[in-house]
Every structure is written in C-alpha cells, then in structure tokens.
Amino acid sequence: MELTDKHQIVIKKLASGRFFSTQQLADELAVSRTSAWNYLKALERMGFELHAVSGKGTRFKQALELLEAEQIINNISADKRALVARLDLLDVCPSTNHHLLQQNSLKPLPNGVVCLAEMQTMGRGRLGKAWVSPYGQNIYASFIWSFKSGIAALSGLSLACGVAVCRALEELGLSGHGLKWPNDILWQGKKLGGILVEIQGESQGGYSVVVGIGINYQMSSQASTDIDQPWVDICTAYGGEIGRNKLAAKLIERVLDMLASYEATGLAPYVKPWNDFDCYKNKNVRILSGEKVTQGVAKGISPSGELVLLKPSGETQLIMSGEVSLRLSEC
Ligand code: BTN
User: Fold this and answer.
1) Choosing a second label site near 22 at 20 to 30 A (CA), which of 48, 67, 247, 275?
2) Would the CA dihedral through 271, 276, 279, 284 be positive or negative?
3) Model confidence over 125-157: pLDDT tens digits?
4) pLDDT tens by residue, 124-133
5) Is-catalytic flag, 126?
6) What is 5-60's CATH number, 3.90.550.10, 3.40.50.80, 1.10.3470.10, 1.10.10.10?
7) Where does 173-303 have alpha helices with state H?
8) Which of 118, 124, 187 to mutate to test the pocket of ligand 1 (most atoms within 8 A of CB)?
C-alpha cells in the first residue's frame, strides 16, 4: 500500500503517542470523519498498532520518534559532517540498499550518499532472507562508497563495518553488545542488527559498494512475528531510549569514517577490535553450508577476515563467509 500525504499527516500526529479523536483527525486532514476513520484503518492494515479508548480517541500503542534530517545532521560531530555527500531520507521504499544501487546505476553517486527509510517493504538480509522493516521502529540505513581496489580487498569491509557499528553503540553508552561472524550484531546472544554489503561493478574498473545496516530500535512484538531467531532492540538493551535520530547520526559518523579510510587501510586495523567484540570466541560452533556441517571451536577472525575454526582433530580451518551460517553447538 502506498502512503499518501494524508496517511503521513495522521502518522506524524499519532507518533507523539497522544490520543486524537476521529473528528480532530478529520479537521487536520480536511476530510469527513468516515474518511479519517478509513485512514486509521488503512494504517492498522499496514501494521501500525492502534489503541482506541472511547471518549479519548485513538493513539499509537507506542509513540514513535520519526527521523528528521536536520536533527540527524546536527547530531553528527562537526568534523565528520563533510563526509555526508547527501542524505536521502525516505518514508517508505522497497530497500535502502536497492534505492542506492538503482540510483547509482542511473548516474554514479558520489562517495558518502546515505539513505535512511522509515519503512522497507522488501528489506533484504543475508543469505536471501527478508529483513523485517516496520515503520518508524528501527534503523534502516545504506551508504555508498566507490573503491579502486579489487574485489578481494573488499571482502573484509562488512567486518570493518561491524566494528564501526559496535563502536557507535559503545559511544552512545550501550554495553553487552558484540559481533557474530560474519556480520551479526548481538546483545546478550540475541540479534540486535545486521549488515548486508552489496557490490556493483563499474565500467572504469573499481567497484561501488553499498553497505546496508539494520538495527532494531524499538520493535513491537506484532511486527516481529516473522523473525526466526531470538532478537532484541536497542531500547531493551539500553534500558531506555537513546533516540532514533541520535542513533542514526552516530552510525553515519562511524560508518562513513570507516569507509573513508578503508581503501588505504584495508581490514588490518579492524582485526583486533573485531576479535575483541567477538561473542563466539572459544565457543563450540557448527558451520552450516548447505547440507554440510563442520564442528569446531571458534577462534576469531584471521588477518584476511576468515573465521578461524579449531577442529576436534586439532587442525585449523579457515572459513570464508560466502553462503555459510554459524551456529552455537549445544555442547
Ligand atoms: C542480515 O541478514 O543480518 C543483514 C540485514 C541487513 C538489513 C539492512 S536494513 C538497511 C539495508 N537495506 C536492506 O534491504 N537491507 C539492509
């Protein structure tokens, strides 16, 4: 369903968490009460959770802090602001990664274009999975950067990005978070966010890379019914609200800072920090690759970003990320 200007007016009013009568909404929208009621019903069908009380009106069950470009830019530290070439703040889109990839294929984008959306209708995750992306509850952010180096040099980029995200969360006062190889952000073993790097070849050689980051901020249980693993959001992990705009700003600051230096440094400066953030270090794990299962003890990442697996035979195996999944073993 497409969100019209009128839907957006209703969303902006109800985002405050205050009650509005149908008549008040009808006046705001300059429509009849029946139409105002229909707009509310349409939002409910889209997944917004409404709370109606007779005599008071209707409100969102949970207030939403909507994204505001000015607030985001002002929250980025002054010395990093110039890294943002452009901020595309979208209401609803299929996927912020798709938005940048499509724009870049029409006309090459400069480094540092950032796309944020309130909602994704076809959010994509790793291994072809969907990324649950309800309106106003999480962060969906994508960044574009071009690299002259070959594709092999870019293989560590999602790991470096994981470190950038963890540092951003740390700077905002969160603790207890870390990384699961290759690119999951966890808090106390539950999934807090993920990173999806997509690469587009360029005719002059070189590559454009789109780094997509999804962070659960304050997700309702209704929105999350399709998530097939234990998850958590920032507000639960932090025990309060960090602020969605503040979080977006800090992510932009840290991720663009990493992207701006990655061509020169590669993965090297991120290997130790990655291993310090590793949640699975020295844990018994299984590596799933199609039907194949490999067991061992996770020993962090190698200098080139493979997972180091110590097998029961005593032999060490390096696992490339590709199409594999990592699971904790029961034992
Ligand atoms: C994962 O599977 O863990 C990676 C999830 C990546 C989700 C983000 S949300 C912003 C960007 N747009 C997408 O469609 N996916 C990424």
Assistant:
1) 67
2) positive
3) 998 899 999 999 999 999 999 998 777 778 899
4) 999 889 999 9
5) yes
6) 1.10.10.10
7) 234-238, 244-265, 268-277
8) 124
